[in-house]
Specification:
Elements lengths: L12 E4 L3 E4 L5 H13 L13 H13 L10 H8 L20 E5 L4 E5 L5 E6 L10 E4 L9 E6 L4 E10 L3 E5 L2 E2 L23 E3 L1 H10 L5 E5 L1
Parallel strand pairs: 3-12, 9-11
Antiparallel strand pairs: 1-2, 3-4, 4-5, 6-12, 7-8, 8-9, 8-10
Length: 233
């Protein structure tokens, strides 16, 4: 996991424009709370509005930066803060399907955005959300869900061969790459990391696409038949 330094709250701020206070290298407590409130309002999931810029708020900032085509630093610097507070800020949880993904019924993955879209035959987005993946293993291209390398295409409770379950596993790329819920421990059913890390690069899978449990179930039902999967960088 890439650990981002926690922003200090006591540093001075730079005044920009008509009396608007923007952070230079850090936020004041008031600004931190305003940023968290705004991130939550835009569907970025910053967590409690407590003025503490911890990992959950940083993850939300990454999702905001991703949705707004910014460098995904996780830092609430002056540029990010300004864009966040602007009326033109784009939501984190509702994004346009990337250009170049084709048409028709399909699943689209953006490795740059750490995001996935489920699109029906009429071109309507059925659902979208954050993912954890690993571009080292999964290359851009067009795939089809189903059996690969003589292995089942769909397994309700797959395993990693060790101590984890990969629930609602849907295979779409040779030989072992598929979609599944964030892995859960066999011992207690807990996920190996929380949902709020989805949509960031703070974790890397072993090639598969990790989803929230809810999204995994939706995708499982969406891929009842062979389904095209378009992976974009």
């Amino acid at each position: 996991m890439r650990i981002l330094s926690i922003l200090g709250l006591a540093a001075a701020v730079t005044l920009v424009g008509a009396g608007t206070a923007l952070p230079a290298d850090a936020l004041t407590g008031t600004q931190a709370k305003a940023a968290q409130t705004r991130l939550n309002a835009l569907g970025c999931t910053a967590g409690p509005v407590d003025g503490v810029i911890g990992q959950m708020t940083q993850a939300a900032t990454v999702r905001f930066q991703s949705a707004n085509a910014m460098i995904q630093s996780g830092s609430l610097n002056s540029t990010t803060y300004s864009r966040l507070m602007a009326s033109t800020a784009k939501r984190c949880d509702v994004r346009k399907v990337p250009a170049g993904s084709g048409s028709g019924r399909r699943i689209v993955i953006s490795q740059t955005q750490n995001w996935v879209w489920l699109i029906d035959s009429a071109g309507k987005v059925v659902r979208q959300g954050g993912i954890i993946d690993n571009p080292t293993y999964l290359k851009p291209g067009t795939y089809t869900s189903g059996s690969k390398c003589g292995r089942a295409g769909r397994i309700v409770r797959n395993t990693d061969g060790g101590r984890l379950y990969l629930n609602y596993f849907v295979r779409f790329a040779p030989c072992g790459i598929g979609f599944h819920q964030i892995p859960t421990y066999m011992s207690n059913g807990a996920q190996i990391h929380p949902d709020w890390l989805l949509g960031t690069n703070y974790r890397a899978s072993h090639g598969c696409i990790r989803l929230s449990r809810s999204m995994a179930i939706t995708l499982w039902n969406f891929t009842a038949g062979s389904t095209r999967v378009v992976v974009l960088r």
